[in-house]
Structure formats: C-alpha cells, structure tokens
Write a structure and sequence with these properties.
- By secondary structure, the protein is α/β, with parallel strands linked by helices.
- It contains six helices and six strands, in the order αβαβααβββαβα.
- Helix 5 crosses helix 6.
- About 7% of the residues have low confidence.
Length: 223
C-alpha cells in the first residue's frame, strides 16, 4: 500500500512539473546596468540643455514614446561594451553634437531575453529630437540578421508592461523618428543634425503594431 501511495505521489509530482514547464514563460527583465556616474549625468544634462533646450537638475525623462532599434552588432556583450562608457569614441557624426555615449534603457537578445541597461525614466541618447521623452529598446540584430520571432514577442511584452506604467502615446521604429519634426514632441534645436536610419526594419514594425493593436496607440505623424 505504501509503495502504491509513493508511486501516485511521484506521478502527480512529475505531471505537475511537466504542466508548469509547458505553460507560457513568465515575463522577466534582467538587470544589466551600464555605467551611470557623475560624468554621464553631467553629459546627459548638457545634452538636454544644448540639444533639447531643457534645463533640468536631474537627467530624467517623462516617457511618451517607445523607440525600437536594432544594434547592427550581433552580440549582447559587444553591444554592452559599446554602451557602457559614458563618453562616445570614434564617431565624428555624433561626437560633434555631444560626447555623451549612445545607449538605451533596454536591450533584447535574439532569444528574447530582456535586459535593463538604465532605469526606465533615466535619460539615454538613442533618438535625435526625442530622447527627452523616449524609452529606447535595442534588439540584437541588423540588416544581415533580421530580428527574430522571439524578439518580436519580447518587444510586445515589454511595451505592454511600459504602457501600464507610463503615458505612452507612440511606438515607433527608429527609421520613423524624423516624422516628428513638425510636432510639439520634437526638440532638436539644430535643423541640420539628422541621421538616416532603417532599423528595426519595416516588416518587424508592421508585425509589432499588429500585435499591439489593442493598445490604441497614436499613428506615426506624416512628414
């Protein structure tokens, strides 16, 4: 009788374990902070003042937009190393505007793992004209490494999470940022400071918008 009871116990335990493993994975964000020190804070405040015309005591943002990017670097660690330094090196097209390094608040690996590089309301330099109000999501991939279905799902889950916390009106691809130049959200003071972007790919954004249709986000303005 004892043997039968033990057998039933283990059958139920294995069945319970199998059921839990087959269920959908839990939404998780892993902390992987890049360097935030006095130098980065000061450079961020300087950027906000000179480029956006905002004079603040703290380099914080009020998120209104999520901007989706790809890294064009096919490695989490290489991307982290690029973002980690407070200062920008070797990119004259950007360093002429500011020596603040580029970064984003989030980074998503090709398997859909989500990493938080900076607190969501901390300023990051990732999108001209919109940084002061934009949360950036970088995805490992590029033209030769199209973003994956796992990344698509991770972006969807992350954006839904952010929408619950902040008054997010827009979700855009980096390639769409210049469409905001004639709106009140645009705050780049230099009319000649622009870069041409293609990330994260139009098909990826079409699929993402389809998955987020129930959020009733605002359409990208025409330009």
């Amino acid at each position: 009788m004892r043997l039968k009871k033990q057998s039933i116990f283990w059958i139920l335990t294995i069945a319970s374990f199998s059921f839990s493993c087959s269920s959908k994975s839990t939404f998780r964000i892993f902390e992987k902070p890049i360097t935030w020190n006095e130098e980065r804070e000061n450079l961020s405040l300087q950027y906000m003042k000179v480029r956006h015309g905002l004079d603040q005591e703290k380099a914080v943002i009020d998120p209104k937009i999520v901007v989706v990017h790809w890294t064009a670097v096919n490695s989490i660690e290489s991307t982290f190393d690029i973002f980690d330094s407070p200062t920008l090196g070797g990119r004259e097209d950007l360093s002429d505007a500011s020596n603040l390094n580029v970064s984003s608040q989030f980074l998503i690996d090709r398997d859909g793992t989500i990493f938080r590089l900076l607190p969501e309301t901390t300023f990051a330099r990732h999108t001209i004209g919109l940084n002061y109000a934009a949360i950036g999501i970088e995805n490992i991939g590029g033209t030769n490494d199209p973003l994956t279905k796992e990344q698509l799902k991770a972006n969807e889950m992350l954006i839904r999470h952010l929408k619950k916390k902040y008054a997010i009106d827009y979700v855009i691809g980096h390639y769409e940022y210049q469409n905001f130049q004639n709106t009140d959200l645009w705050k780049e003071l230099d009319p000649d400071y622009r870069t041409v972007k293609t990330d994260p790919g139009k098909q990826f954004m079409e699929n993402l918008r389809k998955n987020l249709a129930d959020l009733n986000l605002k359409p990208v303005p025409s330009f």
